[in-house]
Write a structure and sequence with these properties.
This is Nucleotidyltransferase with HDIG domain. This protein is an alpha/beta fold. The protein is built from 16 helices and 5 strands. It folds into 2 domains: 100 residues, Rossmann fold (3-Layer(aba) Sandwich); 224 residues, Hypothetical protein af1432 (Orthogonal Bundle). Bound molecules: fe (ii) ion (2 copies).
Protein backbone atom coordinates (compact mmCIF):
# COMPACT_ATOMS: atom_id res chain seq x y z
CA UNK A 1 0.00 0.00 0.00
CA UNK A 2 1.46 3.42 -0.90
CA UNK A 3 2.22 5.95 1.85
CA UNK A 4 0.16 8.46 0.00
CA UNK A 5 -2.32 8.76 -2.84
CA UNK A 6 -1.80 12.00 -4.71
CA UNK A 7 -4.49 13.64 -6.80
CA UNK A 8 -2.89 16.22 -9.05
CA UNK A 9 -3.98 18.22 -12.04
CA UNK A 10 -1.77 19.41 -14.84
CA UNK A 11 -1.17 22.69 -13.05
CA UNK A 12 2.31 24.18 -12.87
CA UNK A 13 4.80 21.91 -11.29
CA UNK A 14 2.38 19.47 -9.63
CA UNK A 15 3.60 16.36 -11.41
CA UNK A 16 7.22 17.40 -11.32
CA UNK A 17 7.02 18.02 -7.58
CA UNK A 18 5.31 14.73 -6.97
CA UNK A 19 7.95 12.86 -8.93
CA UNK A 20 10.59 14.42 -6.69
CA UNK A 21 8.64 13.58 -3.56
CA UNK A 22 8.39 10.05 -4.90
CA UNK A 23 12.02 9.50 -3.93
CA UNK A 24 11.05 9.76 -0.28
CA UNK A 25 7.61 8.16 -0.16
CA UNK A 26 5.68 5.54 -2.00
CA UNK A 27 3.20 7.65 -3.84
CA UNK A 28 0.46 6.62 -6.19
CA UNK A 29 -0.45 9.47 -8.49
CA UNK A 30 -3.90 9.94 -9.95
CA UNK A 31 -4.54 12.71 -12.44
CA UNK A 32 -7.65 14.64 -11.55
CA UNK A 33 -8.76 14.56 -15.21
CA UNK A 34 -9.14 10.77 -14.97
CA UNK A 35 -11.43 10.95 -11.96
CA UNK A 36 -15.09 10.31 -12.56
CA UNK A 37 -18.11 9.78 -10.33
CA UNK A 38 -17.50 6.05 -10.28
CA UNK A 39 -13.93 6.44 -8.99
CA UNK A 40 -13.43 4.75 -5.68
CA UNK A 41 -10.72 6.46 -3.67
CA UNK A 42 -8.93 4.05 -1.36
CA UNK A 43 -8.65 4.70 2.36
CA UNK A 44 -5.42 6.17 3.64
CA UNK A 45 -3.59 9.43 3.29
CA UNK A 46 -4.18 11.84 0.44
CA UNK A 47 -2.29 14.69 -1.11
CA UNK A 48 -4.45 16.92 -3.29
CA UNK A 49 -3.02 19.53 -5.63
CA UNK A 50 -5.82 20.59 -7.97
CA UNK A 51 -7.58 23.81 -8.94
CA UNK A 52 -10.00 24.29 -6.05
CA UNK A 53 -11.80 26.94 -8.07
CA UNK A 54 -13.04 24.27 -10.51
CA UNK A 55 -16.60 23.73 -9.25
CA UNK A 56 -17.25 20.46 -11.12
CA UNK A 57 -14.01 18.91 -9.93
CA UNK A 58 -14.61 20.05 -6.35
CA UNK A 59 -18.05 18.46 -6.26
CA UNK A 60 -16.77 15.12 -7.61
CA UNK A 61 -13.96 15.26 -5.09
CA UNK A 62 -16.45 15.94 -2.33
CA UNK A 63 -18.51 12.89 -3.35
CA UNK A 64 -15.46 10.64 -3.48
CA UNK A 65 -14.05 11.87 -0.19
CA UNK A 66 -17.32 11.44 1.67
CA UNK A 67 -17.68 7.91 0.26
CA UNK A 68 -14.40 6.78 1.89
CA UNK A 69 -14.84 4.58 4.87
CA UNK A 70 -12.07 6.07 6.93
CA UNK A 71 -10.28 9.32 6.53
CA UNK A 72 -6.52 9.45 6.79
CA UNK A 73 -4.59 12.66 6.54
CA UNK A 74 -5.73 14.94 3.73
CA UNK A 75 -3.03 17.34 2.70
CA UNK A 76 -4.13 20.03 0.28
CA UNK A 77 -1.81 22.24 -1.74
CA UNK A 78 -3.20 25.76 -1.93
CA UNK A 79 -1.79 28.92 -3.48
CA UNK A 80 -0.20 30.96 -0.72
CA UNK A 81 -2.53 33.66 0.59
CA UNK A 82 -5.56 32.63 -1.49
CA UNK A 83 -8.20 32.62 1.18
CA UNK A 84 -10.96 31.02 -0.92
CA UNK A 85 -8.78 28.01 -1.71
CA UNK A 86 -7.89 27.52 1.94
CA UNK A 87 -11.55 27.65 2.94
CA UNK A 88 -12.45 25.20 0.18
CA UNK A 89 -9.66 22.81 1.25
CA UNK A 90 -10.83 22.81 4.84
CA UNK A 91 -14.44 22.37 3.70
CA UNK A 92 -13.32 19.23 1.86
CA UNK A 93 -11.75 17.89 5.06
CA UNK A 94 -8.12 19.04 4.76
CA UNK A 95 -6.04 18.15 7.80
CA UNK A 96 -2.94 19.98 6.59
CA UNK A 97 -2.25 22.67 4.01
CA UNK A 98 0.87 23.03 1.90
CA UNK A 99 1.36 26.57 0.55
CA UNK A 100 2.26 26.90 -3.13
CA UNK A 101 4.66 27.55 -4.69
CA UNK A 102 6.96 25.24 -2.79
CA UNK A 103 10.32 23.68 -3.63
CA UNK A 104 10.73 19.91 -3.87
CA UNK A 105 12.75 19.52 -0.66
CA UNK A 106 10.30 21.69 1.29
CA UNK A 107 7.40 19.68 -0.11
CA UNK A 108 9.04 16.42 0.93
CA UNK A 109 9.62 17.94 4.35
CA UNK A 110 6.03 19.14 4.74
CA UNK A 111 4.65 15.79 3.65
CA UNK A 112 6.93 13.90 5.98
CA UNK A 113 5.91 16.13 8.87
CA UNK A 114 2.26 15.53 8.08
CA UNK A 115 2.70 11.79 7.63
CA UNK A 116 5.40 10.70 10.05
CA UNK A 117 3.22 10.40 13.08
CA UNK A 118 -0.45 9.91 12.54
CA UNK A 119 -2.91 10.04 15.39
CA UNK A 120 -3.62 6.46 16.27
CA UNK A 121 -0.19 5.27 15.21
CA UNK A 122 1.34 6.49 18.40
CA UNK A 123 0.95 4.52 21.55
CA UNK A 124 0.93 5.85 25.08
CA UNK A 125 4.72 5.35 25.24
CA UNK A 126 5.12 8.37 22.97
CA UNK A 127 4.61 11.77 24.53
CA UNK A 128 3.52 14.74 22.46
CA UNK A 129 6.96 16.32 22.88
CA UNK A 130 8.69 13.08 21.91
CA UNK A 131 6.45 12.73 18.87
CA UNK A 132 7.23 16.28 17.77
CA UNK A 133 10.96 15.73 18.27
CA UNK A 134 10.70 12.61 16.13
CA UNK A 135 8.81 14.45 13.41
CA UNK A 136 11.44 17.20 13.45
CA UNK A 137 14.33 14.75 13.52
CA UNK A 138 12.95 12.63 10.69
CA UNK A 139 12.03 15.76 8.72
CA UNK A 140 15.60 17.01 9.00
CA UNK A 141 16.98 13.64 7.94
CA UNK A 142 14.72 13.56 4.90
CA UNK A 143 15.75 17.03 3.86
CA UNK A 144 19.50 16.58 4.46
CA UNK A 145 19.51 13.22 2.69
CA UNK A 146 17.60 14.83 -0.19
CA UNK A 147 20.16 17.64 -0.25
CA UNK A 148 22.95 15.08 -0.32
CA UNK A 149 21.33 13.68 -3.46
CA UNK A 150 21.20 17.12 -5.01
CA UNK A 151 17.62 18.09 -4.12
CA UNK A 152 17.41 21.31 -2.12
CA UNK A 153 19.81 22.68 0.43
CA UNK A 154 20.80 21.64 3.93
CA UNK A 155 18.91 23.92 6.26
CA UNK A 156 21.15 24.42 9.28
CA UNK A 157 18.45 26.36 11.15
CA UNK A 158 16.05 23.44 10.79
CA UNK A 159 18.82 21.09 11.86
CA UNK A 160 19.43 23.22 14.95
CA UNK A 161 15.74 23.28 15.76
CA UNK A 162 15.46 19.50 15.50
CA UNK A 163 18.58 19.04 17.65
CA UNK A 164 17.02 21.20 20.34
CA UNK A 165 13.85 19.12 20.22
CA UNK A 166 15.85 15.89 20.54
CA UNK A 167 17.92 17.32 23.41
CA UNK A 168 14.74 18.47 25.21
CA UNK A 169 13.09 15.09 24.83
CA UNK A 170 16.14 13.21 26.05
CA UNK A 171 16.49 15.52 29.05
CA UNK A 172 12.82 15.21 29.94
CA UNK A 173 12.09 11.59 29.12
CA UNK A 174 15.36 9.71 28.82
CA UNK A 175 17.05 7.69 26.10
CA UNK A 176 15.02 4.49 26.64
CA UNK A 177 11.72 6.07 25.75
CA UNK A 178 13.26 7.80 22.73
CA UNK A 179 14.51 4.44 21.45
CA UNK A 180 11.05 2.92 21.75
CA UNK A 181 9.48 5.84 19.90
CA UNK A 182 12.10 5.84 17.14
CA UNK A 183 11.91 2.09 16.60
CA UNK A 184 8.16 2.15 16.26
CA UNK A 185 8.28 4.59 13.37
CA UNK A 186 11.60 4.34 11.56
CA UNK A 187 13.98 1.79 10.19
CA UNK A 188 17.29 1.69 8.38
CA UNK A 189 19.55 4.71 8.30
CA UNK A 190 16.88 7.05 9.70
CA UNK A 191 16.35 4.80 12.72
CA UNK A 192 20.11 4.61 13.16
CA UNK A 193 20.72 8.37 12.86
CA UNK A 194 17.86 9.18 15.24
CA UNK A 195 19.24 6.71 17.76
CA UNK A 196 22.75 8.12 17.48
CA UNK A 197 21.34 11.65 17.90
CA UNK A 198 19.38 10.63 21.01
CA UNK A 199 22.20 8.49 22.39
CA UNK A 200 24.81 11.20 21.93
CA UNK A 201 22.51 13.76 23.56
CA UNK A 202 21.89 11.34 26.44
CA UNK A 203 25.64 10.82 26.77
CA UNK A 204 26.29 14.57 26.85
CA UNK A 205 23.46 15.10 29.31
CA UNK A 206 24.84 12.39 31.56
CA UNK A 207 28.33 13.90 31.39
CA UNK A 208 26.84 17.18 32.64
CA UNK A 209 27.73 19.05 29.45
CA UNK A 210 26.38 22.51 28.76
CA UNK A 211 23.05 22.57 27.00
CA UNK A 212 24.61 23.94 23.80
CA UNK A 213 27.09 21.02 23.76
CA UNK A 214 24.28 18.51 24.21
CA UNK A 215 22.51 20.04 21.21
CA UNK A 216 25.74 19.91 19.24
CA UNK A 217 25.95 16.19 19.97
CA UNK A 218 22.38 15.68 18.76
CA UNK A 219 23.26 17.58 15.57
CA UNK A 220 26.35 15.43 15.11
CA UNK A 221 24.23 12.30 15.46
CA UNK A 222 21.69 13.47 12.89
CA UNK A 223 24.41 14.44 10.41
CA UNK A 224 27.07 11.79 10.90
CA UNK A 225 25.94 9.31 8.23
CA UNK A 226 24.74 11.85 5.65
CA UNK A 227 27.15 10.28 3.15
CA UNK A 228 24.98 7.13 3.17
CA UNK A 229 22.50 9.11 1.07
CA UNK A 230 24.79 8.26 -1.86
CA UNK A 231 25.45 4.62 -0.99
CA UNK A 232 23.23 2.33 -3.11
CA UNK A 233 20.35 0.78 -1.18
CA UNK A 234 21.33 -2.71 -2.26
CA UNK A 235 24.54 -2.24 -0.28
CA UNK A 236 23.00 -0.31 2.63
CA UNK A 237 20.23 -2.84 3.12
CA UNK A 238 22.17 -5.98 2.23
CA UNK A 239 21.36 -8.69 4.72
CA UNK A 240 24.33 -10.92 4.01
CA UNK A 241 28.00 -10.12 4.41
CA UNK A 242 29.32 -7.35 2.17
CA UNK A 243 32.00 -8.21 -0.37
CA UNK A 244 35.31 -6.33 -0.22
CA UNK A 245 34.17 -4.06 -3.05
CA UNK A 246 30.81 -3.39 -1.40
CA UNK A 247 32.53 -2.71 1.90
CA UNK A 248 34.71 -0.11 0.19
CA UNK A 249 31.60 1.62 -1.14
CA UNK A 250 29.95 1.48 2.27
CA UNK A 251 33.04 2.95 3.92
CA UNK A 252 33.11 5.78 1.43
CA UNK A 253 30.09 7.34 3.18
CA UNK A 254 32.50 9.11 5.53
CA UNK A 255 34.41 10.88 2.77
CA UNK A 256 31.28 11.50 0.70
CA UNK A 257 29.52 13.09 3.68
CA UNK A 258 32.54 15.25 4.39
CA UNK A 259 32.75 16.34 0.75
CA UNK A 260 29.05 17.24 0.69
CA UNK A 261 29.26 19.38 3.81
CA UNK A 262 32.60 21.00 3.13
CA UNK A 263 31.21 22.70 0.03
CA UNK A 264 29.51 25.02 2.51
CA UNK A 265 31.30 27.61 4.58
CA UNK A 266 28.87 27.56 7.49
CA UNK A 267 29.24 23.97 8.69
CA UNK A 268 31.47 24.00 11.79
CA UNK A 269 34.77 22.15 11.44
CA UNK A 270 33.94 19.94 14.42
CA UNK A 271 30.87 18.61 12.59
CA UNK A 272 32.93 17.98 9.47
CA UNK A 273 35.30 15.97 11.68
CA UNK A 274 32.43 13.88 13.04
CA UNK A 275 31.14 13.11 9.56
CA UNK A 276 34.57 12.15 8.22
CA UNK A 277 36.08 10.44 11.26
CA UNK A 278 33.32 8.69 13.20
CA UNK A 279 34.73 5.29 12.14
CA UNK A 280 38.29 6.03 13.25
CA UNK A 281 39.68 4.09 16.22
CA UNK A 282 42.30 5.23 18.74
CA UNK A 283 44.70 2.46 17.65
CA UNK A 284 44.64 3.63 14.02
CA UNK A 285 42.62 0.67 12.75
CA UNK A 286 39.62 2.72 11.64
CA UNK A 287 38.82 4.54 8.40
CA UNK A 288 39.00 6.57 6.23
CA UNK A 289 42.28 8.15 7.35
CA UNK A 290 43.60 5.69 9.94
CA UNK A 291 43.86 8.48 12.51
CA UNK A 292 45.28 7.64 15.92
CA UNK A 293 44.31 8.78 19.41
CA UNK A 294 45.87 12.25 19.47
CA UNK A 295 44.28 13.09 16.13
CA UNK A 296 40.71 12.18 17.06
CA UNK A 297 38.75 15.05 18.65
CA UNK A 298 36.57 14.49 21.73
CA UNK A 299 33.28 15.13 19.96
CA UNK A 300 34.16 12.44 17.42
CA UNK A 301 35.05 9.95 20.17
CA UNK A 302 31.68 10.44 21.84
CA UNK A 303 29.82 9.98 18.56
CA UNK A 304 31.86 6.88 17.69
CA UNK A 305 30.95 5.12 20.93
CA UNK A 306 27.29 6.05 20.51
CA UNK A 307 27.39 4.96 16.86
CA UNK A 308 28.71 1.48 17.70
CA UNK A 309 26.19 1.12 20.51
CA UNK A 310 23.27 2.32 18.36
CA UNK A 311 24.12 -0.20 15.63
CA UNK A 312 23.93 -2.99 18.21
CA UNK A 313 20.57 -2.00 19.68
CA UNK A 314 18.93 -1.36 16.30
CA UNK A 315 15.93 -3.30 15.16
CA UNK A 316 16.52 -4.72 11.70
CA UNK A 317 14.50 -7.20 9.68
CA UNK A 318 17.36 -9.69 9.89
CA UNK A 319 18.67 -9.12 13.39
CA UNK A 320 17.27 -8.90 16.86
CA UNK A 321 18.13 -5.73 18.76
CA UNK A 322 20.48 -6.38 21.66
CA UNK A 323 19.49 -5.21 25.15
CA UNK A 324 21.53 -2.24 26.40
CA UNK A 325 23.70 -4.17 28.89
CA UNK A 326 24.67 -6.78 26.27
CA UNK A 327 25.45 -4.09 23.71
CA UNK A 328 27.48 -2.27 26.34
CA UNK A 329 29.62 -5.36 26.98
CA UNK A 330 30.51 -5.41 23.29
CA UNK A 331 31.41 -1.71 23.35
CA UNK A 332 33.39 -2.34 26.53
CA UNK A 333 35.33 -5.04 24.72
CA UNK A 334 36.51 -2.42 22.26
CA UNK A 335 38.62 -0.46 24.72
CA UNK A 336 41.91 0.20 23.04
CA UNK A 337 39.97 1.25 19.99
CA UNK A 338 37.49 3.40 21.92
CA UNK A 339 38.42 5.62 24.86
CA UNK A 340 38.30 3.69 28.11
CA UNK A 341 37.21 6.65 30.28
CA UNK A 342 34.40 7.51 27.88
CA UNK A 343 33.25 3.89 27.75
CA UNK A 344 33.01 3.90 31.55
CA UNK A 345 31.07 7.15 31.44
CA UNK A 346 28.74 5.70 28.84
CA UNK A 347 27.82 2.72 31.03
CA UNK A 348 24.82 4.30 32.82
CA UNK A 349 23.41 5.51 29.50
CA UNK A 350 23.70 2.01 28.02
CA UNK A 351 22.31 0.33 31.11
CA UNK A 352 19.20 2.51 30.93
CA UNK A 353 18.28 0.73 27.70
CA UNK A 354 16.12 -2.17 28.68
CA UNK A 355 15.59 -5.36 26.73
CA UNK A 356 13.34 -4.74 23.71
FE1 LIG B 1 28.88 5.79 9.65
FE1 LIG C 1 26.47 5.52 11.94
Amino acid sequence: MPDLLAIVDDGPGAKQLMSVARSYFTIEIVESATLCDATDLPDGDLYVDVDLGDGALVSSLRRMLTARRSNGRMIFAVPRGVHAAMVQAYALGATDLVPLPIGPAQLAQRLSTALSLLPGNSTDATSAAGAQALVDGAGVLRSIFAAARGVGQIDLAFLGHASQAVADTIADEGFGRWIATVQRHHHGTFQHSLLVAGGAAAFGHHLGMRRSDVERLATAGLLHDIGKARVPLEILDKVTRLTEAEMAVMRSHTVIGHDILSTRSDVPAELLDVVRHHHEYLDGSGYPDGLTAAEIPDLVRVVTITDVFAALIERRSYKRPLPGPVAFEIVHGMSGRLEEALIRAFRPVAMSVSAP
